[in-house]
Structure formats: structure tokens, C-alpha cells
Specification:
Elements: E1 2-4, H1 5-8, H2 20-29, E2 33-39, E3 46-58, E4 64-71, E5 79-84, E6 94-98, E7 103-104, E8 108-109, E9 113-115, E10 118-120, E11 123-124, H3 155-158, E12 164-169, H4 180-191, H5 203-206, E13 215-218, E14 229-238, H6 248-256, H7 264-276, E15 280-284, E16 292-296, E17 302-304, E18 310-312, E19 318-322, E20 325-329, E21 333-334, E22 346-354, H8 356-365, H9 371-376, H10 385-400, E23 403-413, E24 421-424, H11 427-432, H12 438-447, E25 451-455, E26 459-463, H13 474-485, H14 505-519, E27 523-524, E28 530-531, H15 533-539, E29 562-563, H16 568-580, E30 586-593, H17 617-625, E31 632-639, E32 641-643, E33 652-653, H18 656-670, E34 674-678, E35 684-694, E36 697-705, H19 707-712, E37 719-725, H20 726-733, E38 748-757, H21 762-773, E39 777-786, E40 795-804, H22 813-831, E41 834-835
Parallel strand pairs: 13-16, 27-30
Antiparallel strand pairs: 1-12, 2-12, 3-4, 3-6, 4-5, 6-11, 7-8, 9-10, 14-22, 14-23, 15-22, 16-19, 17-18, 19-20, 20-21, 24-26, 25-26, 28-29, 30-31, 31-37, 32-33, 34-35, 35-36, 36-37, 38-40, 38-41, 39-40
Helix pairs in contact: 2-4, 6-7, 7-10, 12-13, 14-18, 21-22
Length: about 850
């Protein structure tokens, strides 16, 4: 909400010396967020000048300029010669002249400069150049604004260009502050300055004509039992002159408030909307057919709105109709058939109160947010429509030359019922944590317009004001007390944590893994959890298996409606973004949740229970069952060079071994024993893919991304990835991170080369050796994988280095050999392994 200070001062006593920053600070103290300060961004000298004469001078480029003599007053140098390209002014016209030294919005400094063979000693300004609108076809003639000032008068003050507006962010629950009336009241709350309510008018001034114009509300499909329109007030002004200029002060205020001037009639309706917070719509009375009926749309109806778009209507849309059919989307935008134009002579003014939910749904359904819908969907004061309609009528009489019709009009309204709220006396201090006195509580509530209807030793009965629909219970009243008395009174006391609590084992494990990867040179990233079904199929499913995705009912991005089943697509996007910005050597990782629904289970079907009380165990269990499993995964991505090229040393690119090392770093940090065997994944190179397992259970994979897949994200080099189910790894690791005891006895080392079929995984052979060798085996490591001469076709030779040690003695060579051969026997039994000759 942008608030011009000159306008604000009409309703509240803002000190003359107060700066925009001072006003913002006061509004921030009562809960608003400071946004910005807006002005016309121009400096003088900018004065009123009178055209004495001009000479048209055709140019070689086909353009005709005017060499003008303009009187700007003796104090400003008298008569000045100015070159002007516009042709919409005449001798004797008074215009706005920007003299050398002035600065226009842009910034655009003005100086005496030679152009078209003359030295132009200033510039005659248009409305657009002054920041007063978009009109740039001709210069601004003051007579068109109804002004006849003295030559040499300061045009900045004359046109209201010395005003400034402060902008605040208004939260959805405080729609009353989308008006000068509401902001002025809040400034009064913050400073104690006297407030003058612009909606405070005598009842006899607001009396409606007894009839003459039929108005009806027919709502046979109310939403949540609430009728679409609870009030509908109509006033008629006849014989208006829509060609009259909007006064400069109104144009300046509307411009500062962020609303473009569109002609006197529309400007008046917008002005009153900003002033009182009640949107107003004006109709060309002569283009209406019969009376007005407010009703829901019927199947198949259409409406062309003021923006020129033909819209298919929903049966939930609330319409303004006459005998010809729909003429407006209630509370959102009017229709083109009855809009006010330069030919309008009689105006029907509408001021209404519409259902908040209906207006919000209509505006979103048609993707048509407007200043009107913004206010109606937050709730407007139900006591203001009569005032707003009369205020618009008065301004049309005053500024557009109309006549208020006191015989014809109409009003339809329901009784305004303000529900009382019981506020227990100890509640506010107990909730906020401040020892407020009773007088402070009641005083704060009365300052915001509440009425203390009853008082007992136990509680107050509080009736909120009509303009505060957000005050609905004791909690919102307590918040208002804290806001008005000052948030700075709330003590900053940290709660004392209960003893004996800390991070869970899983949290400790995730932190260890993240620290280990960061220590190994990886950079942690975060990516969105949304992706496409195709990416889920490619990266989030084992080869050949179909796993369903969780689809969002209302995705942020219609192209990515699915929740991710893998972290790899996000890392590929991170790599693409970095490479496009010149960072080509990457080692990144992410720890995050993935969503792995089970086939045949419908998720998200449970109704969310009310928040008034804690759900029972059965309800919580049903809600949990409606949520898909969300395990935490860890994934890494490598591309580019491990070591950059430098003098005397070539570049060392990342390879598959680096990705496997990352898996080992994760295993070490988690305290797990991982095995890697050759496997397949849809997105990975079939010969360079490993399946990672713990205790025989698959927990992830590691491998090289297929070139075709990496090319889809414009990654030119080799890309290596690994992804593990971190929850599964940590669950199987348990608390097995213990310090090994140091033996004082020497180690016995032996190697063994085993010939096995080529499709036998080395991890399986290693496990068989370890199982058969028994407790004397301290470590076993694969050191060679040979295929070639001396090894039969279809077989391979795997060489393992074995370390034996006994805790209580020095092993003999025979004992180590026996243990080795026991391991070979198990490998031979399982895989047909034999010792290579």
C-alpha cells in the first residue's frame, strides 16, 4: 500500500517536520513492514510559462519543430527561447517549463543545449516527462487542467509534485490498511496523533432514495452457506461531463499511490477506494437494461471484461447482471458493455460488500487480480458502502459537474452483526508473557475500535469494530494488545532446554556424513524437490522397474508436477547451472528427502482434521498412512578435473574411482561396511555401474552417467554420480563406530589369485574369502582384476591381498596358509573359484 503523505495528513496529525522515514518507523512499530519511499524524482527550477509566440520550422527529416518564445517570469530570466517538437499548444497557453538545472525522472537533467540550429534554453514538459501519466503525444497545457496560475509560479507545488508516498506491506489479515482511512488510524495508534475518520458522516446525508432503481441478490449456490453479496448500494449522478480534467492534486495522489489516471469519472472511483477501502464501480446508466441482479453464473455464460478478454464463466462466479445478461464479475472487474466513457452522461454508482471466499476464488480462477478483488477478498467494512457511494457522488457533482439524483437509487443490505468475544482476564498476560494491567489491556482494545460490552472479575466481553473482520477470538485480541502496547515489551528469554537431550543417532550420522564429504572437497548444494515423471523413471527406478510418483494437485511448475524419487536430477541441474557460468570442475553433494510411494497405495486422500484440538491416535495413524515413505538419501556428482592443469603437470580428470571413494567416505563416516558389485541402472553406463549393498541389502549405486543423459543437461564431459539411501545405511550401521584395539603381534600377509567366471562379482568372492578365513583374517583387499593371456575365455583372475593376525600370539606361515585355503574353499564352493596356476 502506497500512502501519499499530503493525503495522510488530512486524516491524522502528522508533524510538518516528519520525514517519510519517520512515518515508516511509526508504522513499523505497529506491525507493518517497510517497503519503500516513492516520489516524483524531480527537482527545480520547474515553473509556469506562457507561450508568447512560436515559429514552425520544417526539418530535413520530415519533422516540424517550433521555435518558441516563452515568458517564465522576471525572477526566472524573463523570455526564453525554447525548441519544442509538440504541436498541441497555442500562443497564450500557459505551460510547464523545466529550466536549465532542473532534473526530470529518469534522471534526465535539463541544460541549455543547441538543437535544430537554436540554443534551447529549457524544455516545455509533457505529463509523462513530469511523471504524471503516460501521455506523451503533446505538452501539458495548464488550461486543460482548469488552472490559470501566474507566470513564474513554481509548477512543482502547483501540480502536487512535491508530495511523497511511503509504501508498506499489508498482510492478508489486515485488509483495512489498504486504505488511507486504515493507515491513518494505525499511525494514530503508533504516535497518539489525533485521527479524523473520513467515513464519519451524518446519517441524514447518507439516506438513500426510497426506490426507483431495482436491485436484487439471487444466490441459490452460496459458498460455505454465505450469500455472495450482503450489501449493494446504488446512487445515481446525472449530467456529468466526463471530459473535464482530473484536478492535478488528485492525479498526483493517484500516481503516487500507484494508480494511473484514466479520466475524471474512473479517477474519482479509484480515489474513494483508496480513501475508504471500499472498491467502487461506476456504470454508464444509459447503457444498462433494466435493474441490477447479483447472481451466480449459469453454465455456458461468457463475459467480456474491461481488459478486453472474453471469459468463460464458472457456476461459482458471482455476477452483476441486468436484463441483457452479465455486465461484470462482482468484486473483480466490470464488463465492457456498460463501462464509463467520454460519452457517458449519467452514472450509476455501485458500492457493495461481497463474500471474501467467492471473490478470492473468482480472481484466481480467471487469473485476474485487481485492486478491487485485493480488498474484497480480505474483507471490507460493512458500514462503509453508504458513505463510499455518497462520497463518489459528491465528488462527481463537484469535479464533473453532475447532479445527484435524490429520487432514484437503491440499497439492499443485511443487518451487520458483530459477534462478541469472551476474553479471560489472565489470558493476555499468560500468552504474551508480559504483566499487563487491566487498564492497559482494555485501553489497547478500545484504541483499535473495540467496545468492552461487559466486564466481570473473570473476563471481558469484547465487541470488535466493523472494519476488523480478522478479530475473531481471544488469541487475535491478545495479539492486538501486544502490538499496540509495543512488541519491545515482550522479554527476549530463551527457553531452558531439558537436560539429557541432544541430536538423535540418525542426526549425528547425517552430520558425520556431510562433514566427511565436505572434508573430502565436496560442496553441499540444495535443490527443489520437484521434477518430472520422466526424470523419476530414469533416475529413481531400478532398470526395467516402474515405480509410481507422487503427483502434486497444484504444482508450482506445471512442467515439474512430481515429487522426486532421486537426488541426481537436481545435482545434474546444479552442474548445468555452474557450467553455464564457467565453473566446469565440480564435486558436489546433497543430503535430502526423496519420495518413494508404494504401488497400489493412494496418498493424500485423508481429510485434514480441525486444528482446534489434538487428533486422536487413530486419526494420526491414518494421516501417517496417507503420506508416502520419505527416506533421506545422499548423492554426489563429479565432473571435470580433480586437479587442474598447471605448468609441468597435466590435468587429472575425475574418474569412476573417485565416485567409489566418495561411497567409501560415506561408509566410513556412517560406520558401515559397504560392498560394491557390478550392476545396471537406466541412466548409467552399463559397464561402469556398481550396486552398493550393506549386509547383502542394496542401498544405492555408483557409476558413470550415460553420455546421452549428460548431454540432455548440456554437460560436455564425463559425469560420475553415486546415490545411497542414507537412512538405510545408518540403520544397518547402528553404533558400530568403535576404536579397534592395537595388537602387539606382527601381521602375516599372503596373496591369492582366483580364477572365476567373468560375471562373478568381486565383492562376492571377497566376502566368501573373509567368511572362510575366519577370525584370524584382519583385512582382505582386491588388488587386481586380470583378463587376458593365461586365463580361459569367459573367466577372470582376481588377486586379493590378505592380512592375518592373532590377538595373543605370532602366527606361523602354516596357520596363515590354512586360513587362506579355508577361504578359497568357500569361494570354490560358491563360485567355482580355483587358484590361478
Amino acid at each position: 500500500m502506497r500512502v501519499p503523505l499530503s493525503w495522510l495528513r488530512e486524516y491524522v496529525d502528522v508533524p510538518a517536520e516528519a520525514t517519510p522515514e519517520d512515518v515508516l518507523a511509526s508504522l513499523v512499530s505497529v506491525g507493518f513492514e517497510e517497503e519503500d519511499v516513492h516520489g516524483f524524482d524531480l527537482t527545480g527550477p520547474i515553473v509556469v510559462g506562457q507561450v508568447l509566440e512560436f515559429t514552425p520550422e520544417p526539418q530535413s527529416n520530415g519533422k516540424t519543430i517550433r521555435w518558441c518564445q516563452v515568458d517564465v517570469g522576471e525572477a526566472n530570466g524573463g523570455v526564453r527561447g525554447i525548441v519544442c517538437g509538440a504541436s498541441n499548444f497555442f500562443v497564450g497557453d500557459k505551460v510547464v517549463v523545466t529550466l536549465p538545472g532542473a532534473v526530470l525522472p529518469g534522471p534526465f537533467p535539463i541544460a541549455a543545449r543547441k538543437t535544430y540550429g537554436h540554443v534551447s534554453d529549457g524544455m516545455i514538459a509533457s505529463a509523462k516527462e513530469l511523471g504524471l501519466g503516460d501521455e506523451h503525444s503533446g505538452i501539458l497545457r495548464l488550461a486543460e487542467l482548469g488552472l490559470d496560475p501566474e507566470v513564474g509560479t513554481d509548477a512543482i507545488a502547483l501540480l502536487g509534485l512535491d508530495d511523497v508516498a511511503v509504501e508498506i506491506n499489508v498482510t492478508p489479515d489486515r485488509g483495512y490498511a489498504l486504505s488511507l482511512r486504515g493507515v491513518a488510524r494505525e499511525y494514530s495508534h503508533a504516535t497518539g496523533a489525533a485521527f479524523r475518520d473520513p467515513a464519519d458522516r451524518a446519517f441524514e446525508e447518507l439516506e438513500q432514495p426510497t426506490g426507483g432503481f431495482p436491485v436484487a441478490v439471487v444466490d441459490d449456490a452460496p459458498i460455505r452457506g454465505r450469500v455472495g453479496a450482503s450489501e449493494f448500494v446504488v446512487r445515481i449522478v446525472r449530467d456529468v461531463d466526463p471530459t473535464r480534467p482530473t484536478p492535478p492534486w488528485m492525479v498526483a495522489r493517484l500516481t503516487l499511490a500507484g494508480i494511473r489516471s484514466l479520466g475524471i469519472l474512473i479517477d474519482i472511483t479509484n480515489y474513494v477506494m483508496l480513501e475508504l477501502g471500499n472498491p467502487i464501480h461506476g456504470y454508464d446508466l444509459d447503457r444498462l437494461s433494466g435493474g441490477i441482479t447479483v447472481r451466480r453464473a449459469r453454465e455456458g455464460e461468457r463475459l467480456t471484461t474491461l481488459d478486453g478478454k472474453d471469459r468463460a464463466l464458472s457456476v461459482e462466479d458471482l455476477l452483476i447482471t441486468d436484463e441483457s445478461g452479465p455486465i461484470g464479475l462482482a468484486g473483480v472487474m466490470g464488463g465492457g458493455t456498460t463501462e464509463m466513457t467520454d460519452a457517458t452522461r449519467n452514472v450509476l454508482i455501485e458500492a457493495a460488500v461481497f463474500d471474501t471466499v467467492t471473490i478470492a476464488r473468482t480472481a484466481r480462477r480467471h487469473k485476474l487480480p485487481s485492486e478491487a478483488s485485493r480488498r474484497f477478498e480480505r474483507g471490507v467494512d460493512p458500514l462503509v458502502p453508504f458513505v463510499a457511494a455518497r462520497r463518489v457522488a459528491d465528488l462527481m457533482v463537484e469535479l464533473a459537474g453532475g447532479t445527484l439524483d435524490t429520487e432514484t437509487g437503491g440499497a439492499l443490505f443485511a443487518e451487520v452483526f458483530l459477534e462478541a468475544i469472551a476474553l479471560p482476564r489472565p489470558f493476555v498476560p499468560g500468552l504474551i508473557g508480559v504483566d499487563y494491567t487491566d487498564d492497559e489491556i482494555t485501553g489497547a482494545l478500545e484504541r483499535i475500535g473495540c467496545e468492552i460490552a461487559d466486564s466481570t472479575p473473570e473476563a471481558w466481553t469484547v465487541v470488535p469494530p466493523s472494519w476488523r473482520p480478522d478479530l475473531s477470538d481471544k488469541w487475535t485480541l491478545a495479539e492486538e494488545v501486544a502490538r499496540i502496547t509495543g512488541y519491545d515489551r515482550i522479554p527476549s528469554i530463551l527457553p531452558v532446554p531439558p537436560s539429557g537431550r541432544g541430536r538423535t543417532a540418525a542426526q549425528d550420522g547425517r552430520r558425520r556424513v556431510a562433514n566427511a564429504l565436505a572434508a573430502a572437497g565436496y560442496v553441499e548444494t540444495l535443490s527443489f524437490g520437484f521434477t518430472t515423471e520422466a526424470q523419476n523413471e530414469l533416475h529413481g527406478s531400478p532398470s526395467g522397474a516402474h515405480v509410481p510418483s507422487v503427483l502434486l494437485a497444484n504444482p508450482l511448475d506445471g512442467q515439474a508436477p512430481a515429487l522426486r524419487r532421486s537426488l541426481v536430477p537436481g545435482l545434474l541441474q546444479v552442474a548445468h547451472r555452474n557450467q553455464s557460468r564457467g565453473l566446469v570442475d565440480l564435486a558436489v553433494f546433497e543430503i535430502g528427502s526423496v519420495f518413494t510411494p508404494e504401488p497400489g497405495v493412494a496418498y493424500g486422500t485423508e481429510t485434514v482434521p480441525a486444528a482446534a484440538e489434538r487428533p486422536d491416535a487413530a486419526t494420526l495413524a491414518a494421516l501417517d498412512a496417507a503420506i508416502p515413505p520419505q527416506p533421506r538419501h545422499v548423492a554426489v556428482l563429479l565432473t571435470g578435473n580433480r586437479v587442474a592443469k598447471q605448468p609441468g603437470q597435466p590435468a587429472e580428470p575425475f574418474d569412476l574411482a573417485d565416485a567409489v571413494d566418495a561411497v567409501r567416505a560415506i561408509a566410513a563416516a556412517a560406520g558401515a561396511d559397504l560392498d560394491v558389485r557390478q550392476g545396471e541402472r537406466a541412466a548409467l553406463h552399463p559397464g561402469r555401474t556398481g550396486i552398493v549393498s550393506v549386509d547383502g541389502v542394496d542401498v544405492g549405486y555408483v557409476g558413470e552417467v550415460l553420455p546421452a543423459v549428460s548431454a540432455e543437461t548440456d554437460l560436455p564431459g564425463r559425469v560420475y554420480v553415486a546415490e545411497l539411501d542414507l537412512d538405510a545405511v545408518l540403520a544397518r550401521a547402528g553404533q558400530r563406530i568403535v576404536a579397534a584395539s592395537l595388537s602387539g603381534y606382527p601381521v602375516a600377509t599372503q596373496d591369492v589369485s582366483l580364477v572365476v567366471p567373468a560375471d562373478v562379482p568381486a565383492a562376492g568372492v571377497r566376502a566368501a574369502l573373509a567368511e572362510g578365513a575366519g577370525t584370524l583374517l584382519e583385512a582382505v583387499r582386491l588388488v587386481d582384476d586380470y583378463r587376458g593371456a593365461g586365463v580361459p575365455e569367459g573367466s577372470k583372475s582376481l588377486t586379493f591381498a590378505l592380512r592375518f593376525r592373532a590377538p595373543d600370539r605370532t602366527l606361523t606361515a602354516a596357520e596363515a596358509t590354512d586360513a587362506k585355503l579355508a577361504g578359497v574353499a568357500v569361494a570354490a564352493e560358491r563360485f567355482g573359484a580355483r587358484i590361478r596356476d
